[in-house]
Specification:
Blueprint: H1 16-19, E1 23-24, E2 26-31, E3 37-42, E4 45-49, E5 54-59, H2 71-79, E6 81-85, H3 92-97, H4 108-112, E7 116-118, E8 125-127, E9 132-143, E10 150-161, E11 166-167, E12 170-171, E13 179-181, E14 187-189
Antiparallel strand pairs: 1-13, 2-3, 2-6, 4-5, 5-10, 6-9, 7-8, 9-10, 11-12, 13-14
């Protein structure tokens, strides 16, 4: 099968997200300029550089009470900071609850029953129980082709890791089982790994 996205795919469901899998989930926490905390998952997310460490996520829709975007991007525009929380399998239901479209003056931490912790460097809440969290400062927001498509880039200025998941000097993801997004409404989890040596090693 071949299709041009501009002409449609002819399938009952869009295969694009199912092809680009698995995708890590960036659970983005922000605080508005008015002090309202927000938490939302984004599967268009990844690390993009080592030195300095940098991450990105993309928001691809809008809300009626935020003009051309969603709460996360609007808050980051105003404050210049955000956190990326890692989603474990244990937190799957809480993460899913925070994907609901709520008014901008409602706190998703409260709606999902999640405890907050304050960041060390930036003025932003984080998920207290998350296996790891990045504190980030905004570097740029890029307007992408299409309506309400924004890519947000940030420099990681602080890293929180749960000590229970550090073994032999390594952060062992199999101890907390990170969640990843597949296509449609499907997810997967990482509970085993294998190693490949590079040709130059």
């Amino acid at each position: 099968m071949f299709y041009e996205p501009r002409n449609g795919h002819g399938l009952p469901h869009n295969p694009f997200n199912a092809i680009v899998t698995p995708r890590p989930i960036g659970w983005i926490s922000t605080r508005s300029a008015d002090g309202i905390d927000n938490l939302a998952p984004y599967s268009f997310f990844n690390a993009v550089a080592y030195t300095p460490p940098q991450v990105m996520f993309a928001s691809t829709s809008s809300k009626p009470d935020q003009d051309d975007t969603k709460d996360s991007v609007a808050n980051i525009r105003d404050t210049g900071v955000f956190c990326v929380n890692v989603v474990s399998y244990e937190l799957r239901d809480a993460m899913n609850k925070t994907s609901a479209t709520l008014p901008k003056d409602m706190d998703e931490f409260d709606a999902a029953g999640l405890e907050k912790a304050e960041s060390q460097i930036i003025n932003c809440p984080r998920v207290a129980i998350a296996p790891a969290t990045f504190e980030c400062r905004l570097t740029q927001i890029v307007q992408l082709e299409g309506q309400s498509n924004h890519a947000v880039f940030g420099e990681v200025v602080g890293v929180h890791m749960n000590d229970a998941f550090i073994e032999d000097g390594k952060f062992d993801v199999t101890k907390f089982i990170p969640l990843s997004r597949l296509g449609y409404r499907d997810y997967s989890m990482v509970d085993k790994t294998f190693t490949l040596a590079r040709p130059d090693d």
